[in-house]
Amino acid sequence: MNHLQDVPLAKAYLLLNHGPSTLVTSEHAGVANVMAAAWVMPLDFDPPKLLLVLDRNTWSRHLVEGAGTFVIQLPSRRQAELTLAVGSSNGGELDKFARYDIAHGRARQVQAPVVEGCLAYLECKVIAEPHNQEKYDLFIAEVVAAYADERVFSKGRWHFPDEESRTIHYQAGGAFFATGEAFQVVKAEA
């Protein structure tokens, strides 16, 4: 995790704007879990907020409700197999960190593990909205820390040096695609 640089919180939304699959880590009462989540999106700039859909039947939901915090991580293409594995198993039935031999460290601002080797991290505190959580499984959270691998995200932009360092997007049935080629468009004068 040597190449991590802080991302200004007002720019944290740029880490999620391209809609990648994510890993969500959480911990409560000494029990930790990691799950895959595709339904995560930026919500606001200042303070930065995001939305996360957490089905009421997931083990992570129980931990997030207990702790009030979680971490969103952006895995790379080289972590697609891990992403599928943690998204296809139940943390209430097994310790995914042990079962899949997941290297991990600790979050900087919240009480949760972080999966080593991810491209970016957003540490979050839940903003309690019981109606949204119960009716829609929708969690609103404030981003309290954001950092990314400077080799793929710097100066507010994603730039992928190789195929294995791209963010991934889950379709279904084990099918992913990697983020494509970036290009710039100059706004035409009116």
Explain this structure to me?
- The structure is a single chain.
- The chain has 190 residues and is mainly beta.
- The chain has a single domain, classed as Pnp Oxidase, Chain A.
- It is built from four helices and 14 strands.
- Strands 1, 2, 3, 4, 5, 6, 9 and 10 form an eight-stranded antiparallel β-sheet that branches. The chain has a two-stranded antiparallel ribbon with strand order 7-8. It has a two-stranded antiparallel ribbon with strand order 11-12.
- It is globular and about 55 Å long.
- The model has no long low-confidence stretch (mean pLDDT 93).
- It comes from Pseudomonas delhiensis.
- Residues 14-160 form the Flavin reductase like domain.
- Belongs to the flavoredoxin family.
- This is NADH-FMN oxidoreductase RutF, flavin reductase (DIM6/NTAB) family.
How does the SSE layout of this entry go?
Blueprint: E1 4-6, E2 22-28, E3 31-37, E4 40-45, E5 48-53, H1 59-67, E6 69-74, H2 80-87, H3 96-99, E7 104-106, E8 113-115, E9 120-127, H4 130-136, E10 138-149, E11 153-154, E12 157-158, E13 168-172, E14 175-178
Looking at the structure, the CATH topology is Pnp Oxidase, Chain A
Assign a percent range to the helix content.
10-25%
Task: Summarize the biggest pleated sheet.
Answer: 8 strands, antiparallel
* Order of secondary-structure elements: EEEEEHEHHEEEHEEEEE
CATH second-level architecture: Roll
Task: List low-confidence stretches.
Answer: none
Shape: globular
Q: Given the helix and strand composition, which structural class is it?
A: mainly beta
Number of helices: 4
For the termini, the CA-CA separation is 46 Å
Mean pLDDT: 93
What is the CATH level 1 assignment? Answer: Mainly Beta
**How many strands appear in the DSSP assignment?**
14
